[in-house]
Amino acid sequence: MIAVITGDIINSRELSVLWIDTLKKSLSALPKNTKWEIFRGDSFQIELTPATALLTAIYIKACIKTIKGADVRISIGFGKKDKKTSERVTEANGEAYVNSGEGFDTLKSNKVNLVIKSPSVAFDEDMNLYLKLALIAMDSWSPIASEVVKQTIENQNENQDKIAKISGRSQSSISEALKRAHFSEIMELESKFRKLIVSSF
């Protein structure tokens, strides 16, 4: 099984041109075995391992939201990939790609910015409820909170003192930003997601 992320930048034409460089940098920072492509200007697709999919989505959201007024829509699809398929992500096919695309098509009508679609209806129902609650916090991240979340994910094995030095902020400001972003609770959800992925498929 693989995971496929399909996403786009919300109202990209109304944003400063910074978003394209920010998106490219966020995708380039992903593990080397991750395949990704940007298409139609402001849309992107990523093929990756299922266990890393949610953290990747959270990371991309944090990167984009470092820009004032910017946000991203993301659908994560899970499933099989066709063996006979293109090396290009945007030309590949299979269950994971179909699920990602179908999930993406529901985002606007459901008025959410992150959704999961897998072969398991029960898994999807549980995870999408958790994500709706998490989005109450994530959709409200300020550029400063987003920057701190981004740096914390990039330096997962470092303590807050080290992250403070990297960001040029005080340890107390890092702690406060993460608290406002509800980062601890969101990482609890990410950990729960990893366990459910293993037990559900």
Summarize the structure.
Helix content is 52%, strand content 15%. It is of the alpha+beta class. The radius of gyration is 16 Å and the shape is globular.
Describe the overall structure.
The protein is an alpha+beta fold. 52% of the residues lie in helices and 15% in strands. The chain contains eight helices and five strands. It has helices at residues 18-28, 53-64, 95-110, 121-138, 143-154, 160-167, 171-180, 183-200, and strands at 2-9, 35-39, 43-48, 72-79, 114-117. It has a five-stranded mixed β-sheet, with helices on both faces. Helix 2 (53-64) packs across helix 5 and helix 6 (160-167) crosses helix 7. It is globular. It starts with a strand and ends with a helix. 36% of the residues are buried.
Helical amount: 40-55%
Number of helices: 8
Taken from the alpha-carbon principal axes, the silhouette is globular
Total strands: the figure is 5
In the predicted model, the low-confidence regions spanning at least 5 consecutive residues are none
Based on CA atoms alone, the radius of gyration comes out at 16 Å
List the helices and strands and how they pair.
Elements (H helix, E strand, L loop, with lengths): L1 E8 L8 H11 L6 E5 L3 E6 L4 H12 L7 E8 L15 H16 L3 E4 L3 H18 L4 H12 L5 H8 L3 H10 L2 H18 L1
Parallel strand pairs: 4-5
Antiparallel strand pairs: 1-3, 1-4, 2-3
Helix pairs in contact: 1-2, 2-5, 4-8, 5-7, 6-7
Properties at a glance:
201 residues; five-stranded mixed sheet
